[in-house]
Amino acid sequence: MVVCYAQIVIRLFGVDSLKEKRSIVRSLVADLKKRFEVSAIESARQDSKDYACIGLSFVTLNEKDCEEKMDNIEKYVEQFHVVEDITYDFHHFS
């Protein structure tokens, strides 16, 4: 079993208020949870209108599945937002 955890930093353009940003982030987090069956939260930069930081985690059977899922998540997020940085790692459990 492989546990994957990731952090995605997204650059937001045209956001005028934190309320608007939170609406965007809530929608993205809900979409990620539903579409990819992951745990996801806004993990940092809550007070910034220009950036959103999404933390997520999930479990797969092997590294290949983990990398494929992360690639799909990255492509999905990039369809709607500018991804500044994405980091992920995984840990094996026997």
Automatic annotation (TrEMBL):
InterPro entries: DUF503 (IPR007546), TT1725-like_sf (IPR036746). It comes from the Bacteria. Transmembrane segments: none annotated. PANTHER family: DUF503 DOMAIN-CONTAINING PROTEIN, HYPOTHETICAL CYTOSOLIC PROTEIN. This is DUF503 domain-containing protein. It comes from Fervidobacterium thailandense. The lineage of its organism: Bacteria, Thermotogati, Thermotogota, Thermotogae, Thermotogales.
